[in-house]
Specification:
358 residues, alpha/beta, nine-stranded mixed beta sheet, five-stranded mixed beta sheet, 14 strands, 27% helix, 24% strand, elongated
């Protein structure tokens, strides 16, 4: 690992402290004469950026920044938003070198900050630990470029690819360690989404209760024609918000006490999932975990609305049963959705396969 990569790794560690969505997580380190003179990170949405906090930290410690090198995992902004441009501050303080992890995907920036700094004679190095920097801000990148949440598809299935028996029985296919990891996934996502059939057949709580420090996601159920029964756990407990997604033709209809409602346009046969995603962004759902059932999972795959897949695979053979994507149909193999294997996790006899959408 190079010297620049070591410092950038520390920037990423700093960045993770911030709670800033829908803004990116950013950490910054300033060095001069071979030592760190200032550190900072973007602490909260609307607050000072990482570069500003690092500059203030250096000044508070009595350092002059002229001739220093600034390391930051995301390209410094060059536009006025909630705060002034960080590029202007870097130029003003006569910092001579800037090392950047990744360019900013925001069209308002998108390389403009780098060009501005270079135009003032500042040396700029880019692409240091770029893949790690992109991974850290994958949610921000998806929100800013695609105007939708970062979407993870999750299945718990047998080795022959079944998520339930023909009679919809599915508890429990995977072991307790797999279920705990699934609850960790729930805890890091803003929302968890299922379809009406899954809500009725499984009656899930949709919480992260098996996680040590559970942060329960917002529970979201697609109920196009508002046919759900009222006695389900998502309505009777108050662990989290519950949002019902229905056809926009049902205006003003309120069937389930305590639930919130979002009307979504219909396409030919079902709800418009792109419209749904746009409306979830307005509800501050920036990351979304989809847990089924097969109709819901298939719908998101058909539209290409997913970024990751987690397949929890148990060493069980079910035979005839329900497949997770059985409603996604193709006429030739060349149209198949291609994935990239990201990691494999072994949990006793279960295996978790994590893929990225190619």
């Amino acid at each position: 690992m190079t010297f620049e990569e070591k410092i950038m790794k520390n920037c990423l560690t700093l960045a993770k402290k911030g709670k800033v969505l829908p803004n990116p997580m950013v950490g910054c380190i300033i060095m001069k004469d071979g030592k760190v003179i200032g550190k900072g990170y973007h602490k909260q949405f609307g607050g000072p950026h990482a570069e500003v906090n690092a500059v203030n930290d250096a000044k508070m410690n009595g350092y002059n920044l002229k001739g220093a090198a600034l390391f930051v995992n995301l390209e410094p902004c060059s536009h006025y938003g909630k705060t002034p441009p960080c590029t202007d501050l870097i130029i003003k303080e006569q910092i001579k070198e800037v090392v950047v992890g990744m360019t900013d995907p925001n069209p308002l920036v998108a390389g403009k900050g780098i060009r501005k700094l270079r135009g003032k004679g500042i040396k700029v190095t880019t692409g240091v630990l770029e893949s790690q920097c992109r991974e850290l801000n994958r949610v921000f990148t998806t929100v800013i470029t695609q105007k939708r949440p970062y979407i993870i598809l999750k299945t718990a299935q047998s080795i022959d690819g079944k998520i339930a028996l023909d009679n919809f029985s599915s508890k429990w296919i995977t072991n307790i360690k797999s279920r705990k990891l699934a609850h960790e996934l729930r805890s890091i996502c803003d929302g968890i989404l299922i379809g009406r059939n899954t809500a009725e057949k499984d009656n899930p709580e949709l919480t992260a209760r098996l996680n040590r420090r559970p942060k329960n996601p917002v529970r979201i159920v697609i109920d196009k024609d508002l046919k759900l029964g009222k006695g389900l756990k998502i309505f009777t407990d108050k662990a989290s918000r519950t949002i019902i997604i229905h056809s926009s033709k049902h205006k003003g209809f309120r069937k389930y006490p305590g639930a919130e409602y979002i009307g979504v346009r219909e396409n030919k046969y079902a709800l418009d999932l792109n419209d749904l995603c746009r409306k979830l962004i307005k509800e501050k759902i920036y990351s979304l975990l989809i847990e089924g059932g097969s109709k819901t999972l298939s719908g998101f795959v058909k539209e290409g609305l997913f970024d990751e897949v987690y397949a929890f695979v148990a060493p069980k053979i079910i035979g005839r049963g329900i497949s997770p994507y059985q409603d996604f149909k193709l006429d030739r193999i060349t149209k198949a959705k291609e994935l990239i294997l990201n990691k494999v996790i072994r949990l006793d006899n279960d295996i978790v396969l994590n893929y990225k959408n190619k």
